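Translate sequence into structure tokens.
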Amino acid sequence: MASPVTSMLTASLNLSNISSSYCRFSAALFPASDNFSARVSISQKCEGHLRNVLRFSSAIRRSGVVLHSVAQKSNPSGSTDLQLGGNGAPTEGVVVLVIGGGGREHALCYALKQSPSCDTVLCAPGNAGISSSGDATCIPDLDVSDSAAVISFCRKWSIGLVVVGPEAPLVSGLSNALGKAGIPTFGPSSEAAALEGSKDFMKSLCDKYGIPTAKYKTFTDPLEAKQYIKERGAPIVIKADGLAAGKGVIVAMTLDDAYEAVDSMLIHGIFGSAGSRVIVEEFLEGEEASFFALVDGENAIALESAQDHKRVGDGDTGPNTGGMGAYSPAPVLTKQLQSIVMESIILPTVNGMAAEGCKFVGVLYAGLMIEKKTGLPKLIEYNVRFGDPECQVLMVRLKSDLVQVLLAACRGELSRVTLDWSPGSAMVVVMASNGYPGDYEKGSIIKNLEEAEFVAPFVKVFHAGTAMDLDGNFIATGGRVLGVTAKGVNLEEARDRAYQAVEAINWPGGFYRRDIGWRALPMKQIAEK
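Result follows.
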């Protein structure tokens, strides 16, 4: 006869199914249309479900059992690891709310759920894939642009940590409001988020505190901008000052391309107010890399390195995108270079922001160029949140308790934190809708997603832009739709597993790059000889 704990465990294995069923009436919760008024209110349809999820998680915690659902996939028998709190005692779990609904947020939900100190992960608004995977319970009707609504929700459901994924809520001040309400929040204030919200602000900070970056000048007058471009010559880089959904940077290889970019932003207003001011920047030749650091206002600790692939086409061709794939670690960022980045870029930024009266608490994502002529890093841009798709490869490699790490950042206690990473490598291949990054198709059916996760060990499909149709099929609703992620003992194995999973997915309406990792693999092969 099963023990009470075993019986509770057996039922708890369906916790992900509860989340899944929450999404399965997705015609109301995650409809293919953007008609949010058609969605059912939290109080009418979701509140009872949410109470059940939280009550059940708390019961499991009180029993001393911690569930690690990732073990279900890695163990072919389907058994689940059981772990007790310290000395066999029950642990008090943290209810975490993740703000956002893309691939980055799915990866954060996945990692947070693995944290031993996590009770329950909620995600607002989330997406159909996050919910059906069981990595979080999604709250699609919580208006995350309404700070008062988010605060009320956090108080009602005893949220112990809020993790803000996208940049827009940060720039608009969600962290400020939550902080004033006494709710632990991982993510910078609106003042500190200006590092991403205004490229001119970031460049000015670099000038003031001696942070290496590309030479630049800021303009609001198109004629003055064109005159400067003519003097500098091509290639040259034109950037919208504000947030432009990852599309505000144009690498102009000719003067005519540069003039056209200036006109599109300053005259035609293609990016609205975000492009009312432009930064004209020198073109840096070298290899790009992504560097992430967790910051608590005064201290910073580096995450593992990663490298993104911005261009849409194989061989780094075509227009820039939000990112078509990534891998970690990035061989171009040697230990020596990582130390240089921390000392010359990250720490001066942290200290400079504190000196300016807007301490930074959150993750600093430095887009770097390792210059070909010097071999040294220069700062291209800052983002004030985890990168997407870099977050996916970092989260599948992280072994530390992410909840406790982020809470330490919120409390100013990162000096006492060390991070533990799984060995080997990870790779994510982004599958995007046909036409992306331009006008893309919506509503195409995606099949074999569950099967893809079992074609090889350590494969995880993160959802960025999916919904469900009335027949229960996943459909594409965004430009970048899936992040097919895999781990391996080395980058070659991670790549092979990721592409095996990609090829198992049946989606005629999508495409992907076939050369993710092409820069690192030759370097790795040389190093291994």
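Note: The radius of gyration is 23 Å.
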